[in-house]
Amino acid sequence: MKIDPKNKADLSAQIAKAIRDAIISGDMNVDERLPSESELADQFDVSRSTVREALKRLAAQNLIRTQRGATGGAFVRRLSYDEAYAQHITTSTLLLSMNAVDFETACEARFALERACAPLSAKRRTPDHLATMRAEIHRQAQPGLSDERFCDSDVAFHRALVDGAGNPVLSYQLAGAVEAMQPLMNMITFTQRNRDVIIGLHTRIADALEMQNSADADEALAELTAYTLTLGEEAMEARARR
Amino acid sequence: MKIDPKNKADLSAQIAKAIRDAIISGDMNVDERLPSESELADQFDVSRSTVREALKRLAAQNLIRTQRGATGGAFVRRLSYDEAYAQHITTSTLLLSMNAVDFETACEARFALERACAPLSAKRRTPDHLATMRAEIHRQAQPGLSDERFCDSDVAFHRALVDGAGNPVLSYQLAGAVEAMQPLMNMITFTQRNRDVIIGLHTRIADALEMQNSADADEALAELTAYTLTLGEEAMEARARR
DNA sequence: CGCGTTTAATTGTCTGACATTTTAGACAGC
DNA sequence: GCTGTCTAAAATGTCAGACAATTAAACGCG
Asked: Which terminal CB of chain A, N or C, has fewer other CB atoms within 10 Å?
C-alpha cells in the first residue's frame, strides 16, 4: 500500500486509490485504524492537505469514517445495507436522468426484475409485508391524494413486495431499479380511472401473495407492466405535444 | 445552493452536500462549470482548502471532473454506463464481503434476476451475443483451465446472456449481482465432472436462446441454480471443516 | 479509591505561498 | 491581413505552518 510512483499527477487520487485497494483487497479489516494523517503524509511523502483530500474521497464512498480526538483517526468502515441502498439509488437515478433513458426501457427492466422476486415473495412473505401492502393500497385509494404521493405509495408497495422475498441482496439490487423509476413515474398524471386499475392490480398481487399463489401474482404483475407502459407512453406523447 | 447554516461541524461535508443536491436536482446541467474554488470559498465563507475537500468528495462519486488551466475548473460530469457499472460492482462486492452474506442468499438473488432476463434475451439476443456465449463455453472446456479462469469465463457467459436482453438498465442492475458473486464462486473447486455439468447446462441455455425458446432457457437456468447451490454448500462445508 | 484537571494526540480549518497547466490576447514579422 | 510566438492571467494542485476543537488517557489531590 505504500507504493507511489513519481507520477506527479493527481497525487491525492493516487493515494486514495492505494488505500482503497488495501481496503478492498482485505488487507485492512473493518474498524481497523489507518495511520494518522501526519504519518500518511510522511509515508507517501506528501503534505497533510494532500492526504486529507485523499481521505475525503474515501469518506465520500463510505469506505472510512473519521473520528476526532486523542484516539481518533480514520477507520475502515463496514458498509451497511442502508448506505449501500442509498448510494445505489442515487447512482441509478442519476444514470437514468443524465443519459435520458426512455420510459419503456426503465419500465421493462424494473418489472422484469420485480417479477423475478414474486415467486420467492409468494413463498416467504410475512404478515408484516402483507400488512404494509394492504396499508399502501388503502392509502392509494384515498381521495385527493396528489400524484406525487400516489407514486410514493406505489414505490412503498413494490418495496414491500420485493422485501417479502426475504433476500437482502435481492432487495438491495432491486432498490435501484424501483426507486430510480420514480422521477419518470412522476411525469405521469394519474386519473381516477388509472388509479382504480392500478389499485385493482395491486390488490390482486397482494391477494395472490397472501394465498402463496405465485402464478396469479406473476400474471397480475405482467398486466401491471403492460398498463404502466401504456400510461408512460401517453405521458410521453403529451409531453412531446406540449 | 448557497445556503449553509452556522453549524460548525463537518463544513466540507455540508458544502459537498449542497453542491451535490444542486446537481442531482437538475439545477446544474451536464458540462456546466461550477464557480472557481476561490469563488466558492467566498460564497460559503470558508477557506479554499475546505472547498477543495468538498470537491474531492464529489469527484470521488464521479459527479464532477476538474480541469486545470485558464478556462479550467470543476464541471458537472455525465455519469457513463461504464462508470456506473464499475461503481455498482465495487459497492456490491464490498457489501457482500463486509457483511458476510452467505453463498445461498447471493446465489439465489443472482439467479432469480438472471432468470428475469432470459425471456427478453430469448427474444432479442443478437448473433454477437450467441457467439460470445459459444466462445466462452469453448473456453470453459479447455483442459488445464484454472478455477479462477473458469469463473471469469462463467461471468462473461452470463454477462452475454444478460446483455442479450438489449436493455442497458437491466444490464447495469444485473452487473452488481453477477460480478459480486465472483469472490464467493472463487472459493469453489471445480472438478472436471462439475465443469462438464455446467458446460452442458450452458450449452442448453445457449441453444434455447438461439432457438428463442424461453421456457427451455428458464428450465436450464433453474437446474444451473440448483447445481450451483449444491456446489456452494459443499465448498462451504469443506471450508468449515478445514 | 474517586473525581476533577491537565495533557497529548488527532482531526478540522485557515492563511499564504508557490508550482503547473492551459488559454486568450498582445505583438512582431511578413 | 495573416501567422506564429510570447507573455500574462486564471485556474487547479501542492506545500508548510499555524491554530481551533475534540477526545481519551494520564495525573494529582482530597
From this structure: C
- ipTM for the predicted complex: 0.85
A38 vs B53: CA distance, rounded Å: 17
Q: Which contiguous run of DSSP H or E holds residue B66?
A: strand B64-67
Closest partner residue to B112 (CB to CB) among A54, A101, A117 is A117
Task: Select from 1.10.10.10, 2.40.30.10, 2.40.10.10, 2.60.40.380 the CATH code of A11-76.
Answer: 1.10.10.10
Q: Which residue do the cell numbers 422475498 mark?
A: A165
What's the topology of domain A81-241?
Four Helix Bundle (Hemerythrin (Met), subunit A) (1.20.120)
What residue ranges do the domains of chain B occupy?
11-76, 81-241
Give the pLDDT confidence of B85-142 residue by residue, as tens digits.
989 998 999 899 888 888 999 999 999 999 999 999 999 999 999 999 999 999 999 9
Return all residues near B34 (Cβ < 8 A) that are at least 6 apart.
B19, B28, B40, B55, B64, B73, B74, B75, B76
Q: Mutate which of A173, A221, A225 to test chain B, going by most B C-beta atoms within 10 A?
A: A173
Residue pLDDT, tens place only, B128-146:
999 999 999 999 999 889 9
Q: What is the DSSP string of B160-176?
A: HHHHTT--HHHHHHHHH
Contact (CB<8Å) A173/B169: no
For C12, which residue's CA is nearest its C1'?
Answer: B10
